[in-house]
């Protein structure tokens, strides 16, 4: 009887160990799947940002074309208002997707690249917000030469990202390299940021 009891205990312990090992393996595989989804999710968000950025660039160009017509009438003002409203909307939408990008499960180098890209596009959004506020304060869509240069830089940034994302593979480092020049125009302290981040 005692022997049978020991056998049962041993079998029970072996069963528990087997269950624990299977559970550990399952959790490990689930965690790896979660990490993979998280990383892939970042690139999916970037694809959405790319589409919205390309649309934003289209509407900034439309806005600039309307400005070049140099006509002052209610119809043109209405078109300018609509064009800039789309620009603002797309910029805020991009901003929200940027915050959805997570670097928790990326390596240090990739994390640094994502952070710099997010920083760059947030600064771009800030410029659009500042320009919007200026329009509201002045009750006019008048743009000085400095703002015009920055607007053109915003278009370049989003066209560049869109071209890279639509290519065969997405290279974050190449995107950052290609948008460096227009970002220097948009954000005065960008060279300092690159220096501090080692880029």
Q: What general outline do the C-alpha atoms trace?
A: elongated
Class inferred from helices and paired strands: mainly alpha
Helix and strand sequence: HHHHHH
Oligomer, anyone? single chain
Give the overall pLDDT as a whole number. Answer: 85
Give the key terms:
elongated, mainly alpha, 6 helices, 199 residues
Describe this structure in words.
This protein is an all-alpha fold and about 200 residues long. The chain has one domain. Helices cover about 85% and strands about 0% of the residues. The radius of gyration is 26 Å and the shape is elongated. The relative contact order is 0.11.
List the helices and strands and how they pair.
Blueprint: H1 2-69, H2 74-100, H3 108-138, H4 145-165, H5 172-186, H6 190-197
Helix pairs in contact: 1-2, 1-4, 2-3, 3-4, 3-5, 4-5
Task: Please sum up the structure shown.
The protein has six helices and no strands. The protein is mainly α.
